[in-house]
Amino acid sequence: GDDAYAAEMRALVTASNTVRVNVEAMTQDEIKFVHEDAGSCVLGFLRGAGSGVCLCIAHFGEQQWENGEYGLHTGCGEGKTWKLILNSQAKEFGGWEGSAKESLQADGGGKIFCSIPKWSCLIYQMQ
Predict the structure, then answer these.
(1) What digits encode the pLDDT tens for the residues 29-40?
(2) Angle made by CA atoms 93, 82, 123, in degrees to the nearest 5
(3) How are beta strands 54-59 and 42-47 bridged, if at all?
(4) Alpha-helical runs (H) found in 1-127
(5) DSSP state for residue 116 in the 8-state scheme
(6) Taking a C-beta distance cutoff of 8 angstroms, is the pair 44, 33 a contact?
(7) Exposed end of the chain (fewer CB within 10 Å): N or C?
């Protein structure tokens, strides 16, 4: 129908399924929880193993970090680059442009500093 919210949700489901089909790490049994912040309602975990590992960030709250100020441990060591492959708050899914950074660089301790939108799921793939 003409329901814009339904169209955005269908687009998100399609994008999620595309990631699952095209990114091997998202179908592997390996999972490792690397970040838990109950106070901010943020959970980070790795899917897969090896060079194609994905970092999934789930945020279950209203708070937002819009300027790359949220520090999150990746569990993958220093200097890794992470590319955004899914943002549930992207504009095409009813969110907004710039709600998450397209690419992140881990510091010397394997920590990234990212933007996290409210009520979101972000998936980054290690490059």
Answers:
(1) 999 999 999 999
(2) 35
(3) antiparallel
(4) 4-22
(5) E
(6) yes
(7) N
Distance CA 37, CA 97 (A): 25
Angstrom distance (rounded) from CA 37 to CA 71: 10
Q: Which two tokens stand for residue 15?
A: 């994008």
Do residues 55 and 82 make contact, with C-beta atoms less than 8 angstroms apart? yes
Query: What would the mean pLDDT of 74-85 be, rounded to a whole number?
Result: 91
HSE, CB side, 13 Å, CA atoms: give it for residue 49.
Answer: 4
Q: Write the DSSP string, 25-61.
A: GGGSS-EEEEEEETTTTEEEEEES-GGG-EEEEEE-S
Give mean pLDDT, residues 121-125. 97
- CB 53: neighbour CB atoms within 10 A? 22
Phi, psi (deg, nearest 5) at residue 10: -60, -40
**Residue 57 half-sphere exposure toward CB, CA atoms < 13 A:** 35
Looking at per-residue pLDDT, the higher value among 49 and 25 belongs to 25
The whole-model pTM stands at: 0.94
pLDDT of residue 1: 57
